[in-house]
Write a structure and sequence with these properties.
This protein has one domain. By secondary structure, it is mainly α. It starts with 5 loop residues before the first helix and ends with a helix. The longest helix is centred in the N-terminal third of the chain and has 27 residues. It has 10 helices and no strands. Keywords: Membrane, Transmembrane, Transmembrane helix.
Length: 245
């Protein structure tokens, strides 16, 4: 078991919380305050990012990162990766998608429930401490890296895949944020985000199914799509009329 240096953790906390705060501000401001921030120009985005960075690097208790770390601990590498990807997307003026990918959100929700039950002693299998084990952590790290690379390559939940690869690199190279693999993949904020995304996806699916059931049934309209058959019928009608006369 190898743990990161305390100085490296402090630096990581400043950078990670800065990425989280900047990405949230650039995503939320145009939505919450559309009259004040109808569309953020690149100059405004640079000012927001610079201001957040200056606040996070303040020494000691003057930095918001100090208090955020006391309350929420270190951001997971996955949340940091999501924030970095979202920040790049906001800089390129791509649309904001607040919910996580449903499949990925469901996976994080289940993992979080199992880990929290284990931490509270409900199931008591020592799953969290396996994250410090070199053998188990190595296998899970390789599996996470393969899953992230596949998601990016096949363009299925590409954002989640890129964020997952970022978290794997942080853990593999620097053992951040705490030396435990589970802390690199999940944290309370990310888990709450995943739970909210699952609920949102479930509500939308229920509403879509309900709308489909309540939609009026329109009988099919028979349309003669064969012009040659229509001409033949018209000719037959004309012949019958001539014979009748």
């Amino acid at each position: 078991m190898s743990l990161p240096e305390l100085e490296l953790q402090i630096i990581y906390a400043r950078i990670a919380w800065g990425l989280v705060a900047a990405s949230m501000l650039l995503s939320v401001l145009p939505t919450v305050l559309p009259k004040i921030f109808p569309q953020l120009a690149r100059r405004t985005k640079a000012i927001v990012i610079g201001t957040v960075a200056l606040m996070m690097v303040l020494p000691g208790e003057a930095s918001p990162a100090h208090w955020l770390t006391l309350v929420f601990q270190y951001p997971s590498g996955l949340l940091t990766g999501y924030s970095l990807v979202a920040l790049l997307a906001r800089w390129r003026e791509r649309p904001v998608i607040f919910p996580l990918h449903p499949a990925f959100a469901l996976l994080l929700t289940v993992i979080g429930v199992v880990l929290y039950l284990d931490a509270f002693g409900v199931i008591a299998v020592g799953l969290y401490y396996r994250g410090f084990d070199s053998g188990a952590a190595a296998v899970l790290t390789v599996a996470a890296a393969v899953a992230g690379a596949a998601a990016v390559y096949f363009r299925y939940a590409g954002t989640a895949g890129a964020a997952l690869l970022t978290s794997v690199l942080l853990f593999s190279l620097l053992r951040l944020p705490s030396g435990n693999l589970w802390d690199a993949l999940l944290d309370p904020l990310l888990w709450a985000w995943a739970v909210g995304s699952v609920i949102w996806a479930a509500v939308r699916r229920y509403q879509a199914r309900k709308a489909a059931l309540l939609a009026p049934v329109v009988p099919p309209v028979e349309v003669d799509v064969e012009p040659e058959l229509a001409q033949a019928r018209a000719a037959a009608i004309d012949i019958e009329q001539v014979q009748y006369k």
